Prior knowledge:
Blueprint (H helix, E strand, L loop, with lengths): L17 H30 L5 H21 L1
Amino acid sequence: MSETNTDSRKEPASQLPVAVRVLGWASLLNDSASEMVYALLPHFLLQTLGGNRFHVGLIEGCADATASLLKIWM
């Protein structure tokens, strides 16, 4: 009976190219930055632009309606 050599599995099955890893990190940082900014938009609208809660609700409602319509059409 032959034994399998487990030492041959030291190297990963597939190495990703450096460009793919860099683009992955760039995508991660971009997504996290956009999520951070998204949380600050209502505060920016209220404090800096002088809007009120009605304006925030109107913008959020339009965004939800657009997202719902896009889900239906696609």
